[in-house]
Amino acid sequence: MNFDLTKIVRPKILNLKPYRCARDDFKEGILLDANENPHGPTLKEAESCAGLNRYPDPHQVEFKTKIADLRNTQSSFKSENLDPLTPENICLGVGSDESIDALIRACCVPGKEKILAMPPTYGMYSVCSDINDVGLVKVPLIVEDNSFQMDLPAVLDTLNKDPEIKLVFITSPGNPTAALVDPKSIEALASQWQSGIVVVDEAYIDFAVTGGSAAPLVNKYPNVAVLQTLSKSFGLAGVRLGLTFASKPLAKVLNAMKAPYNISSLASEIALRAMEPESIFIMKNSVQEVIEQRSRLLKDLTSLKHVADTQVGGLDANFIMVRILGPDNKPCNELAKVLYHKLASESKVVTRFRGLEYGCAGCLRITVGTKKENDYLVKEFAKTLDSLAR
Ligand SMILES: Cc1ncc(COP(=O)(O)O)c(C=O)c1O
């Protein structure tokens, strides 16, 4: 493979000496090294927060070991005998939003270099590229057949013509498309383009039924990075914990770059609890429940008048997209928007209007709720749509 990380990472970042503290060497004793408060947390019931006067562990090796083991067993590429993921393949972030920003900061020179994203897609790639003054090149997903797959020839063509593009963001399963991107096309991109990093954002991977995680690919392709999060399948959005799986040299760069104590002791403790076998069992059950409700929700909503009966995107995430049709049977943003507003303001059910996204005319994105929530949504959706389209 013709990939050279030293040509991809910005020179100052590549040569960064990570912040070191005395506790990298000594963790026990009378700790007078980090200017903490020795009297403990200044809270009324401080006993329940024992230890929070101390800085957290900067490395989280135990959590990384456990999540690496979990992902080693769940890959689309299991049969290929790839080197297993280890803690050295991981960098943790404050949600995968921080991980997205970190990759851009590590690789793209502001005001000069660029990232590539594939609309319709997650909004933070564009926000982070703006924040970092990095250009955003768009190559849309294939929308004509509602598959929302990557247009590999168009992506390769764009990359070959523009050497300033350093990162390609693939959201798989997609948001708002809910479609897993074919893992073989991701591998094809990684093997045919080596002047940057292919970032696969797998925030919704545990809900995918058509394939598993691409994370183990990072040990085959040093130009692949995979983002995951505890915010979705693990039900821990409030904890703010995201992960980047990457080749060991790239993970080392990202770890050197991160703020030393970005993961709080509280987040770290909950994350470790989430890796216990009982918690994994609960996570899998809750994913199963979402998967069952997802099919039911899709069936109920697409059988309504004024909702397209062809599936929009995939069924690989914890949300679905439905397309609202006007009286002429064409996608209708006006109707979809009024429906969205009425559902939120009168029925008190908040969905997401996505009709202005590429290939999503007339679309609402709806998170799969509990059975009770879905029952209510379907009832209100049918009633409101009926009254509006009359
Ligand atoms: C595709 C995608 N990536 C990343 C994120 C961010 O997740 P986190 O909560 O880990 O920051 C989201 C959140 O909705 C998302 O949809």
Question: Strands, helices and their partners?
Answer:
Blueprint: H1 5-8, H2 11-14, H3 61-72, E1 90-93, H4 95-107, E2 114-117, H5 124-131, E3 135-138, H6 152-161, E4 165-171, H7 183-192, E5 197-201, E6 224-229, E7 242-245, H8 248-257, H9 265-274, H10 277-302, E8 319-323, H11 333-347, E9 352-353, E10 363-367, H12 371-389
Parallel strand pairs: 2-3, 2-4, 4-5, 5-6
Antiparallel strand pairs: 1-7, 6-7, 8-10, 9-10
Helix pairs in contact: 4-5, 10-12, 11-12
The structure holds pyridoxal-5'-phosphate (PLP).
Residues 95-97, 122, 171, 175, 201, 203, 229, 231, 237, 242 line the site of pyridoxal-5'-phosphate.
Structure overview:
The protein has 390 residues and is an alpha/beta fold. The protein has 2 domains: 5-21 and 58-275, Aspartate Aminotransferase, domain 2, CATH 3.40.640; 280-389, Aspartate Aminotransferase, domain 1. Helices cover 36% and strands 12% of the residues. Strands 1-7-6-5-4-2-3 form a 7-stranded mixed sheet, sandwiched between helices. Helix 10 (277-302) packs parallel to helix 12 and helix 11 crosses helix 12 (371-389). The radius of gyration is 23 Å and the shape is globular. The site of pyridoxal-5'-phosphate (PLP) has 12 residues, from helix 4.
